[in-house]
Amino acid sequence: MRTQKCHGRVIAALAGCTALVLSVTGTAQAAPHRVAPDRQVLAANDGWGAATTGTTGGAAADPAHVYTVTTWDAFKAALADGGSAPKIIRVKGTIDADGPSCASFAVPGYDFDTYLKTYDPAVWGRTKTLDSEPDDSPEGLRRASAALQDAYIKANVPANTTIVGTGKDAGFRGASLQIKGVDNVIVRNLGFESPLDCFPQWDPTDTADGNWNSEYDSAVVYGSTHVWMDHDTFTDGDHPDSTLPYYYGRIYEQHDGELDIVKGADYVTASWNVFEDHDKTILIGNSDSASTAAVDRGHLKVTFHHNLFANLVERAPRVRFGQVDSYNNHFVAGDGYGYSYGIGMESQLVAEHNAFTLPDGVAAGSILKKWKEAPVTADDNYVNGTPTDLIAVHNAQVPGEILQPGAGWTPTLRTKVDRAKAVPKIVDHCAGAGHLR
Ligand code: CA
Ligand code: CA
Fold first, then answer.
1. Active site residues
2. What are phi and psi of 263, to 5 degrees?
3. Which of 127, 245, 283, 293 is deepest in the core (most CB within 10 A)?
4. How far is the CA of 216 from the centre of ligand 2 (A)?
């Protein structure tokens, strides 16, 4: 049976949960006891999320703190109920989290055409940001409208919570999960279609040409610890960047990240997820600034294993400061591929036993991208089925950005490591939402 073959290795029972054990039907070979997905915890040693106290989410929830939701309002109400008591929120079907329309968030007086006319570089210039524009200006009205969307599509996840999709099609359209300042959260078996920022801000000073900047990651781990993201699918879905318009000659970017991990967050395991059809995918550490360094240094420890990274432009992930372990992932490059791993300030990335599928015209030297001087370990990786030294090939092809081998630490929090060559078959078959039941 396919699903059991996919998931035999990720089952982890919470001690004392025998009342919740399900009997397995169908095959005689299956394990005699099986904990239902909503009560499963991160296995011992399964990545950085398993460090110190481990990640159990809401597995110990009492019956009063188990919720099944089918609407965004009910989901947010369940999150808000019961403080930090362990809770399980089961999500059924795809929940629309983006409101009736962008227009529904616009405050009276906001008009995009007026905004465009006012801040046209031919009128406004390119040296001054819009940040000190007053509340009754087009930018002020944009800000107020954005605040309404922000309040609607963001959902704050409390400590000791498991959010789990039931069945094959559970997830959110346009939600932004905020895992902020809390410990012990599990998010599994959910599809996330990227939120669209209805009110991107024009910044004339961001690059020489200016940029439209948008908010709202599908999920952000912000200063939180012990988070397990497992069997989720992140995608731009029906709204890829290729469908977005251009204004002032710049793409009207309405997406932010798929999963960002920032502000001193620590002990995160991301396993068996699909990250696909997106530009800036995963940011670990969001600034080089001294104040951010003071918060991030020594933290941002994240493990990625058995994830599929498909048709992305960049940041899978881009790393600052953290000891990041990335093993047994499959990367499939498509049109517009930029790079997979961003080597940022004081990062200590270990990338081993991964597989890369690159189309003609994409050079293996672009898998790694050097942003700052930081060492990296990249052993036993395969590109199109061939063992490839990612650092050597990068240094040969990008001689201006020489990377030094040896991240300076050795990951120990790994369970089963598959042969790199077998990774595409295993990961493509089993990663993403809809496999757990
Ligand atoms: Ca909608
Ligand atoms: Ca972000």
1. 315
2. 55, 55
3. 283
4. 6
- Residue 95 phi, psi dihedral angles, 5° rounding: -95, 130
Please compute Rg for the chain using Cα positions: 22
Backbone angles phi, psi at 330, to 5 degrees: -115, 125
- Give per-residue pLDDT as tens, 24-63: 333 444 455 789 999 999 999 999 999 999 999 999 999 9
CB atoms within 10 A of CB 115: 20
Write out the DSSP string of 249-310.
TEE------SEEEETT-EEEEEES-EEEEEEE--EES---SHHHHHHHTT---EEEES-EEE
Nearest ligand to the CA of 260 is: 2
According to DSSP, residue 353 is labeled S
Per-domain boundaries in the chain: 24-430
Q: What pTM did the predictor assign?
A: 0.92
| Ligand nearest the Cα atom of residue 101 | 1
Q: Domain 24-430 - what CATH class? A: mainly beta
Look at strands 211-213 and 176-180 and give their pairing.
unpaired
Distance (angstroms) between ligand 2 centre and the Cα of 217 equals: 5
How far does the centroid of ligand 1 lie from the alpha carbon of residue 256, in Å? 18
CA of residue 205 relative to chain centroid, distance: 28
Point out which residues pair with 388 in neighbouring strands: 381
CA 239 to CA 234: how far, in whole Å?
12
Three-point CA angle 280, 382, 326, nearest 5°: 50
Residue 99: nearest ligand to its CA?
Answer: 1
The dihedral region occupied by 72, where left means phi > 0, alpha psi between -120 and 50, and beta the remainder, is alpha
Question: Kindly report the CA angle at 92 between 91 and 98, in degrees rounded to 5?
Answer: 75
Dump pLDDT digits (tens) for 283-323. Answer: 999 999 999 999 999 999 999 999 999 999 999 999 999 99
